[in-house]
Amino acid sequence: MDNKAIMPINEVLYQIQATLKAPKNQYNSFGKYSYRSCEDILEAVKKELPYGTHLKITDEMIQLGDRYYVQATAVLTSGTEKLAVSACAREPLTRKGMDEAQITGATSSYARKYALNGLFCIDDTKDPDSTNGSESKTKPDNKPESKSYPKSDKKATEPQIKLLRSKLKFKDLDDSYVIDQLGVDCLENTPIGKVNDAIKLIDDYTGV
Question: Staple 34 to which of 15, 24, 165, 188, CB 3.0 to 4.6 Å?
Answer without folding.
Answer: 24
